[in-house]
Amino acid sequence: MVSIITYLLVASIILFFEVLFPFGLWALFAFGFYALGVAQAWGSYGYIGGLIALAASVTLAALTLYLELRLLPKTLVGKAFFLKDKNTSHSGPEALSPEIKGKKGVAKTSLNPSGRVEVEGKVYEAQSTEGQIREGDDVLVEDIGPYGLKVKKA
């Protein structure tokens, strides 16, 4: 009985470390220890003992994950491990309006073939469609590409 409880507790501790040190292998070890505990309970106490150990394993795993994902981030230690802010920035063509095509701008960096351009007061990632464009050259927006604007010398 002591070894069954030990397997289940060790599994929960290993599962706890999976969130702190993500690798994927920790979770496999944890579920392996849960399986060992269930198998030993099944062998020692029959299918009822195995079912009880299985229910205890699921409950311990759920409790461990709840503690890690809900309570740990609110603690001083958890704040060091978890991100505080969401990334709400946008990039790529979905953030660019189609009306930008045909607008003129200025190269903020040299484009060889990529760099940054300023169009209507905003700076964008851009790629030159006609070779190198020097910093300060006037540019014309031809299209919106997968990684920013497609521009040529104006």
Key descriptive features of the protein:
OB fold (Dihydrolipoamide Acetyltransferase, E2P), 154 residues, 2 domains, 5 strands, alpha+beta, 47% helix, rod-shaped
How do the helices and strands line up, and which of them pair or pack?
Layout: H1 2-20, H2 25-71, H3 76-81, E1 104-107, E2 114-119, E3 122-128, E4 138-145, E5 148-153
Parallel strand pairs: 3-5
Antiparallel strand pairs: 1-2, 1-4, 2-3, 4-5
Helix pairs in contact: 1-2
In short:
This protein is of the alpha+beta class. The chain has three helices and five strands; from the N terminus they run αααβββββ.
Describe this structure in words.
- With 154 residues, the chain is α+β, with helices and mostly antiparallel strands.
- The chain has two domains: 2-81, no CATH class; 93-153, Beta Barrel (OB fold (Dihydrolipoamide Acetyltransferase, E2P)), CATH 2.40.50.140.
- The chain is built from three helices and five strands, in the order αααβββββ.
- It has a five-stranded mixed beta barrel.
